[in-house]
Amino acid sequence: MVFNFDAAARRELPPALCIKEDMNQFEALCKLASDENWCWNLFCTTCGHMHFRYAFSELAAGKSPTDPNWLVHGRYTRYSNRLGPLPRSYTEEQKERKHGICGEADISSIASNCKFPDWLGYLGLVLNHMNSRSVSYKALSSIWASQLADLVSSNTPIHVRLEEVAKGSGVLNIKDLENCESDMMHNI
Questions:
Q1: Torsions phi, psi of 63, nearest 5?
Q2: What does the buried/exposed string (b/e) look like for 111-142 if buried means 16 or more CB atoms within 10 Å of the residue's CB?
Q3: CB-based contact 14:73 (threshold 8 Å)
Q4: Percent of the chain residues topping a pLDDT of 90
Q5: Which residue in 166, 127, 161 sits closest to 147, CA to CA?
Q6: Closest by Cα among 139, 120, 121 to 44
Q7: Residues 149, 162 contacting (CB under 8 angstroms)
Q8: CB-side neighbour CA atoms (13 Å) of 53
Q9: Is it the case that residue 19 has pLDDT exceeding 80?
Q10: Cβ(56)–Cβ(98) under 8 Å?
Q11: C-alpha to C-alpha distance for 170 and 142, rounded to whole angstroms
């Protein structure tokens, strides 16, 4: 079922946006980012992947891209008046909230609804910006590793690594996502 926006909100949204009601906040964010071609380059010196930085703050505040008053969209770039300065870091409380939201996301749904390899970049931004030594971050890594293991070839080094992380040995990192991408590219 497609989320029904009111008429005023619909005028504000790009026509291609089709977020399903049953998506969790991070899944909806990934779909929005994919539809609007948000920058996910960790080292971008032009925009600094600002849409994601603001969106992460909004998610941590309990908002969702399915909300009619969601402000973060690709065509907008002047958020400081409405959302404050560009977030450069996040509090542990914000990270904990994001870990919970992202841990409930269905990665196979993200993969099927978003452009490849962009969706892996979205996961990478979470790993980069929400990294912590907390139990919730380790749990997020375990959950995501388990789901990613289902998407890569079995009996490969990345599959073995993901299974180890899924069992609690270590946490996911950007290199793991790069290895997932390489494996998936070979299976296209």
A1: -90, 165
A2: bebbeebbbbbbbbbbbebbbbeeebbbebbb
A3: yes
A4: 75
A5: 166
A6: 121
A7: yes
A8: 19
A9: no
A10: yes
A11: 8
Q: Give dist(CA 2, CA 21) in Å, integer.
A: 6
Residue 171 structure tokens: 């946490």
Closest alpha carbon to 28 in 67, 75, 85: 67
Q: Can you name the residues that pair with 20 across neighbouring β-strands?
A: 2
Strand ranges, E, within 99-171: none
Separation of alpha carbons 73 and 158, rounded Å: 34
Handedness of CA 136, 66, 74, 121 (dihedral sign): positive
Give the three-state DSSP class for 20: strand
Task: Give me the phi and psi of 2, to 5 degrees please.
Answer: -85, 140
Mean pLDDT of 39-55: 93
SS3 180: helix
Q: Which residue has the higher pLDDT, 4 or 171?
A: 171
Are the C-beta atoms of residues 167 and 160 closer than 8 Å to each other?
no
